[in-house]
């Protein structure tokens, strides 16, 4: 176990002793308050959102009426996070202070991409083919850092694409680029990682492994909601590795069924299959641009987060294979998307009548659930 992991474990134990979890009665009361806030009528806003120009949700599920479902094999054991606030560990290395949009990177040979010493200006190289880094407000614009080579120093992971000419939109060209810092402070890319043409809304380093919450777009490798690809350095290149996030094929929605207005059951996430409009999940093969495997508290424990609607709609938080929280959308609005950053969930809404954007709602993770 690393020093960081030991420190995090000690911190979580200390917080657990100082924080009293909410009582079951309190949780039930909270669910009932949410239930009363949401009218009992058939929800159709996510379909209406498509007419408003938003890429939204379609049905992909089949219902099974069974008592319970164990966590999928390989997924981290379900637990309750006792960390009440976002924690971000500082990495003390010059690579973290790099201005990537104007960096000079030595690139390896890679089909359709520049190679050798490459200077970036405003996030792009000169000439063709051209390297372009993702930058706000694009998805995957925030670099990830961590020691992937085992030398005690962190590498940087960037989301980038290579354009072939002025008419090239970069559609289907995205990949992850891993960059290391030399003893002379030069920046050298170790390689391009992941399926080319996927979207990479979330990626992180843990236990010397690069994880990518990648979403299929132009390439499909049998994606399952809640899965993350894994890669490890073998001394000369990155190889695929077993992932502790193989995806979630069943979700027990009973803990949030009252708030959702869904039948209480275990739901099988089966791409392309429908359940007569009872459930409406974000489709696994749709490039929605959202991360789904999220570290909500900043403590390393990750949850599956996805949009769902039955009678009511919102964002569901799943721990292992069991739903633990539901963030509703006021029935007066439709949901056009959501985003998450450092403990805060932002739900984008639109006016049902006009389709015009409405004010967003923000929710903060307190270690157990989202609160406004």
Write the layout of secondary structure elements.
Layout: H1 3-18, H2 24-37, H3 45-51, E1 61-64, E2 104-107, E3 116-121, E4 124-125, E5 130-133, E6 144-146, E7 155-163, E8 175-181, E9 187-193, E10 199-206, E11 209-215, E12 229-233, E13 238-240, E14 250-252, H4 257-260, E15 266-269, E16 280-281, E17 293-295, E18 302-309, E19 313-319, E20 322-328, E21 333-341, E22 344-351, E23 357-365, E24 370-371
Parallel strand pairs: 2-9
Antiparallel strand pairs: 1-15, 2-3, 3-4, 5-7, 6-7, 7-8, 8-9, 10-11, 11-12, 12-13, 14-15, 16-18, 17-18, 18-19, 19-20, 21-22, 22-23, 23-24
Task: Compose a concise summary of this entry.
The chain has 4 helices and 24 strands. It has 372 residues and is mainly β. It has 2 domains: 24-72 and 248-371, no CATH class; 94-240, no CATH class.
Tally of helical runs: 4
- The whole-angstrom Rg is 21 Å
The largest pleated sheet is described as: 8 strands, mixed
For the termini, the CA-CA separation is 36 Å
Tell me the number of strands: 24
Approximate shape = globular
Return residue spans where pLDDT drops below 50 for at least 5 consecutive residues.
Answer: 11-75, 77-84, 271-278
Order of H and E elements: HHHEEEEEEEEEEEEEEHEEEEEEEEEE
The count of domains is 2
Report the average pLDDT across residues: 77
Strand content: 35-45%
**Category by helix and strand content:** mainly beta
Percentage of residues assigned to helices: 10-25%
